[in-house]
Amino acid sequence: MKVSLITTVLDAGERLEGFLRTLEAQTRQPDEVVVVDGGSTDGTLERLRRAEGITLIEEPGANIARGRNLAISAAAHDVIAVTDADCELEPDWLELLLRPLEAGADVAMGAYRPIEDRFLHRCMAAVNLPDPDEWDEATFMPSGRSVAFRREAIDAAGGYPEWLAIGEDMYVDHRWRELGMDMRLARDAVVRWPLRPDLASTWTQYFRYARGDAIAGMHRQRHALRFGVYAGALYAWSSRSRLLKLASLVGAAAYASAPLRRALRRSDDPLERAGSVAAIPPLMAFIDAAKMTGYVAGLWARRPHS
Hints:
CATH architecture of the largest domain: Alpha-Beta Complex
Number of helices: 11
Mean pLDDT: 94
Low-confidence stretches: none
Oligomer: single chain
Largest sheet: 8 strands, mixed
């Protein structure tokens, strides 16, 4: 089985070196690497031009979906592996990612774990990234950071949606599920990816994700439930009913239980565990506020304007 590894990049900075280093260290080397640069100005282009064994396509202004479509069109092989150029690949990532395809799958769904170099990142990971034992192959939605597929699978999905600035990989995931594609987990095929450095950029990230969901019509029930839960909590605390307030506190504890359990399981440091218990609930509310604001902005963007 010959495989083309594709990725898009825009101002990857020093992260590019980690990607290139871990790509070179793969136990199963791709048969070709195609990189589409969307107009980098930070030295990324110059570094890629010097790199050996890379087909570089320069497409200033291309978004991620456009870049991926260009890379797939240029790829010589009919098995495509996808990641991001700011990620670091575990040495056996590609080898393990290809196994479901070698066994007959249409799509191989790899794993991704954060690069956790500070307390905020470890809390963020606990909030947003379930542990592998929580994944269900029947419902798992792969990220464009760690996925491989046959060319006919992406063709059947219509390619990546170039009209969607963010969330393009999730849009394709939904199409694959609707089409009944054979999608199998490769739990041990891991890439490491950097989280946002601060709360301001984290807000922007989740705002944009939710805005993309609204524009693409994805996850309507999930977003509706979030609005309903917070509306119910506001109603409970604006009322005089102690029972409603107690019920809202019980609900909040249940909502935060999975992230808190992950944080406690992932750390042996008593001080960090105590800090996680204090930090995770407000961090969850912060991210939910970003998502709700972004979703409303996306619905407004979809609304016909005269």
